[in-house]
Amino acid sequence: MKQYKNSVLAFFLVVSGLANSSENIGLDLIKDMTQVGQTARMTYLFWDVYDIRLYSPSGQYERLKPFVLHLTYLRDLDGQEIAKRSLEEMQKQGFDDQALGDIWLTQMQSIFPDVSKNYSLYGVRDEKGATRFYDSEKLLGEITDQNFTKWFFDIWLGERTTEPKMRMKLLGEK
């Protein structure tokens, strides 16, 4: 009986260890990074949509170096709609390749989950220029096209963003 209890205890320790390690992926992504500017809030009409933070290893935003955007949603949203809205925002900045946009939309729709209040989504620009998406527990997907990376993150960080005040807060500009 004692051996059975020890086996059960060992099993629960392993499972809880896995659970604890998977819960911290978001924290692991930013543990060696510094927040660049301030937390910004996206509000549409009178609805708070998400809070967003920018992190980088140096504490400075460098477009061609690794960084992480961390979004914490403040309401329930459909993943398919998040993907559509992302492509629309890229198009507002000047992206106009319909065929490539359709490919990216399909990729984003397969990656972006439905989100609920307090759900965290991390967009990571890696050292090779690819974009990886995580939630706090796992990798959701990756898009390796460097052009996607540029247009996607420019939604918030590009000079032609539709939200210049948000950009200024994220980058720590006055």
UniProtKB/TrEMBL annotation:
Pfam family, one: Chalcone_3
Secretion signal, residue range per the UniProt entry: 1-21
Domain Chalcone isomerase: 45-172
Protein keywords: Signal
Xref: InterPro entries: Chalcone_isomerase
Protein's UniProt name: Chalcone isomerase domain-containing protein
Species of origin: Pseudoalteromonas luteoviolacea
